[in-house]
Amino acid sequence: MKKYLFTLFLIIPFLGGCLDLPNDVTIPQWDTELNLPLTQRKYTLDELIKTDNYISIDSANGFKYVARHSSMAEKQSIEDFIEGKLDQSGTGVKLTVADGSGSAYILYQNGMALDSAYFLRGMLKLSVKNTSTETIDLALVLPAFVKNGNPLTINGQLAANQEKNFETPLEGYKYNYKPQDTTSNFLRINGTLSGSSVPVNIDISYAIENTMFSYIAGILPTSTLNPLESTTGLPITDDVKDFRDKLKLYDAELKLKGDYFDKLLPTDPNKPFKVRIDQLNIVGYRNKKTEQFSLKLNGRPDNNLGPLNMINGHLEEPFTSSNSNLSEFLSFLPDSIVVIAKPTLNPDKERGAGTNRDSLQFGFELILKSVLSITDLIVTDTLELSMDKDARDNIKNFRAATIYLKIDNKIAFGGKIVMDYVDSNFVKLFSLDTINFEPANVDANGFPIMKHSEPTIELDSMQVQQLAISENIIMTVVINTTDSHSGQKVVFTSKDWLSIISFCKVKYHLNLDED
Amino acid sequence: MKKILLYIIIIAFMAFSGVNIFAQYGSFGVADAQSIGMGNSFGSSFGVLSLGKNPALLDYPQDTSGYVAVQFPNFAFKAIESSMTLDDFNNYFNYPTSKNLNDAEKQAFFESFGEDNGFYFHLGSDLLSFAVKPTPTFGTIAFSVTDYMAGTLKVPLTMVDLLINGNAQNRTYEFDDMSFKAWWIKYYTLSYAREIMKFDDDFFIKRLSGGISLKYVHGIAYAGVENFDAFLKTGANNALTGRINYLANSAFSTDLGINYDFADTDYKNNASLFNEPAGSGLGFDIGFAADLDNHIRVGLSITDIGSITWDKNAAEYKANGDIYITDLFDKDQQNDLENFLDDSSYAVNSFSTSLPTALRLNIAYDISKSIGIIPGDLILQLAYNQGFNDMPGNSLTPRLALGARWKTLSWIPIVSTGLSNDHSGDIVWTFGLGYSTEVLDFAIATHDMISFMSTSRYPHLSLAMNFVWRFGF
Question: Which residues of chain A neighbour B455 with C-beta distances below 8 Å?
Answer without folding.
Answer: 19-20
